[in-house]
Amino acid sequence: MKRFSAGFGLFILSLASFVAYFLIYTLCLDLETPKMALLKQESVELKSKMELLERKFEKNNRVLMELQRRDNYVYRPIFGMEEISQDVRNAGFGGVNRYAHLENMPNSDFVIDIEKKMDILYKKAFVQSRSYDEVAVLSKRTGEMASCVPAVPPVHLDKVRISSLFGLRSDPFMKTPKMHTGVDFVGKTGEPIYASGNGKVVEVSFNFFGYGKEVIIDHGFGYKTRYAHLNTIDVKEGDMVERGQKIGGMGNSGRSTGTHLHYEVMYKGNRVNPSNYFSRDMKGEEFLSIVKSNNSGEA
């Protein structure tokens, strides 16, 4: 029993000596154990790799931002496409916590931050890739698009005059300021009205208290045109028409103060200024050359 007690006491003394030595080695002398030194070295190397990864991220992000800038202000406007907002490009990932599995790692805050940035970078790259796909599709259809955009006046400008432009004006009925969403052309009853671009007739209607007899053409690529207050209509819904094809005659139908054509251009559902799409100098033989090929010489 005495031998056991002596052995146990020796064990306790050895353990106390080890603890005291460890504390003196690590705390008093500010020295590291080999394992601690190895872990510290691994931590430094990991942080160095993460900092390198972050620098690569910043470089790639700058390159992607330049691609976004060119896409929004060069490539997409060429084809009449709206720019992609930064809210869409920079959108993150909602829902569950995608980074919970990283929270117990060493330097977890740094790791999670890098992971989030990489996710956003991948999302930006995906959005940019889809945008370039859309631009590529339209670029292959440039010839078709050139014929569809409403780029010529809907009337022979030598035979009519413009009475009202797009913008705020005094309403002819109420005499109060009101937005005028098109361009008005004044001429004689029956003056030919022509399609300003290739497209499909999607609406032929009559509204006594509004546009009267009207035709709406869908030109594709986001464009539609409205021809209102007509006297006669020469097309029906579903017809495919070509630029310069006669679609009706000028009139005074609906809510109108006199014989005229109310002409609108709509782009992606918004009414835009028609004057931005046709030249007022397109008269005489230049205009006749467009309409003659589709109307057997009528102009």
H and E string: HHHHHEEEEEEEEEEEEH
Report the strand count: 12
Quote the average pLDDT.
79
Question: What is the general shape?
Answer: elongated
Profile the largest sheet: 10 strands, antiparallel
Question: Strand fraction band?
Answer: 15-25%
Q: What structural category characterises the helix and strand content?
A: alpha+beta
Radius of gyration: 37 Å
Number of helices: 6
- Contiguous low-pLDDT stretches (5 residues minimum) are none
Report, as a whole number of angstroms, the end-to-end distance: 128 Å
Report helical residue fraction.
40-55%
Structure overview:
The chain is an alpha+beta fold and 299 residues long. The chain has helices spanning 2-28, 34-78, 86-89, 108-139, 142-148, 284-295; strands at residues 161-164, 167-170, 177-180, 183-186, 192-194, 199-207, 212-220, 223-233, 240-241, 246-250, 260-267, 270-272. The strands form 2 sheets. Strands 1, 4, 5, 6, 7, 8, 9, 10, 11 and 12 form a 10-stranded antiparallel sheet that branches. Strand 11 and strand 12 form a beta hairpin.
Secondary-structure map:
Elements: H1 2-28, H2 34-78, H3 86-89, H4 108-139, H5 142-148, E1 161-164, E2 167-170, E3 177-180, E4 183-186, E5 192-194, E6 199-207, E7 212-220, E8 223-233, E9 240-241, E10 246-250, E11 260-267, E12 270-272, H6 284-295
Antiparallel strand pairs: 1-4, 2-3, 4-11, 5-10, 6-7, 6-9, 7-8, 8-10, 8-11, 11-12
Helix pairs in contact: 2-4
Give a nutshell description of this structure.
Helices cover 42% and strands 22% of the residues. By secondary structure, it is of the alpha+beta class. Strand 11 (260-267) and strand 12 (270-272) form a beta hairpin.
